[in-house]
Amino acid sequence: MSKGILSILKYVFFLLFGIFLLWLVFRKVNLQEVLFQFKHANYWWILFSFVFAALAHLARAIRWNILIRSLGYRTRTSTTFYAVMIGYFVNLAVPRLGEISRCGALSQKDKLPVNALFGSVVAERVFDTLVLLLLIFLVVISQLELLGEFLEKNIFTPLYLQFEDNLNWIVFAFFAFLFVIILGILLFRLFLPRFRNKSFYIRINEFVAGFMNGVKTIQRLKNKGSFFFWTFIIWLMYTLMSYVVFFALKETAHLSFIDAITIMVIGSLGMVAPVPGGIGAYHFFVSLILFELYGIQKATAASWATLMHASQSILMIILGVFSYLMLILQRKQDQNEKHRTHPFQNH
């Protein structure tokens, strides 16, 4: 099977999986209630969230510039912003392709090497992953009481009952799993020389090398303080973006800033899922937390998740198209300036 067909099948699979998650969110929800929420939502708060979203994207562009300059290249913040928005726009349709697209857009505009730009994006993703893990830890600590009740009700108690009823099978499964792991390690060591030339082994090595190189890129930064500051601004704007949308619905208006951090973190997990635009995954995770953790009715939880996801997707489409047009205009302006500076270059 060719790589192209395999990529298409993977895309279709994850798209259908996202639609399945979306169906899970709405299958036991009264759609009339959801439409009622949409009708009576205060869309001024959603428009206000666009301000924080745009600031987050601008901060990301500024931070990316810091990484690019650490590599010895220079580009304008406006150009970097346009490239970032093109990346987000592409990611709505094809996950992970946005990172390549934004590097390609910036490379084409300012004639920068794509591999260097992609390395800086890897560094960004590495650092953002670490920040997200830290935020998850802080969310767990700050919401320990609520999370404790949620985990006890939905995970620990059911697991304990299952464990008590199926003790023999669990012990057998544990030792079987242990045996498979040990056997796998032994076989891997035995056939390691043969694996070295296999594509999957090479990809794993490349991923690990890229991850480590990304960490080292951040370590080599001269302007670490500015990089950390803009990282803080990015995540603060993401949180404010969620917080103000709470006020769009009466049933969520009582939620706090700390709650917004929780929703933002959980929503980020949904957006990084390999489904186009985070559709389904974002709705599933966010509505589950709103319902289980904060006692928001299912219809309201589904409505809030849909309003948040749809509004930000619309903003990304608008800014993505605008950025694409602006890069075309900038390239034409650069060509005109080059022609005026060197009128006889092509003669």
Assembly state of the chains shown: single chain
Principal-axis shape: globular
Major pleated sheet: none
Mean pLDDT: 80
Helix segment tally: 13
Instruction: Report the β-strand fraction as a percent range.
Output: under 5%
User: What is the first-to-last residue Cα distance?
Assistant: 50 Å
Number of strands: 0
Low-confidence stretches: none
Which structural class fits the helix and strand makeup?
mainly alpha
N-to-C order of helices and strands: HHHHHHHHHHHHH
Q: How would you characterize this protein structure?
A:
It is globular and about 75 Å long. The chain has helices spanning 3-26, 31-40, 43-70, 77-93, 97-110, 114-142, 144-165, 167-195, 199-219, 224-246, 257-271, 281-292, 298-341. It has one domain (3-136, 223-338). Helices cover 83% and strands 0% of the residues. Helix 2 (31-40) packs across helix 13 (298-341) and helix 10 crosses helix 11 (257-271). With 347 residues, it is mainly alpha-helical. The protein is built from 13 helices and no strands. It starts with a helix and ends in a 6-residue tail after the last helix.
Describe the structure in brief.
The protein has helices at residues 3-26, 31-40, 43-70, 77-93, 97-110, 114-142, 144-165, 167-195, 199-219, 224-246, 257-271, 281-292, 298-341. The protein is mainly alpha-helical and 347 residues long. It has one domain.
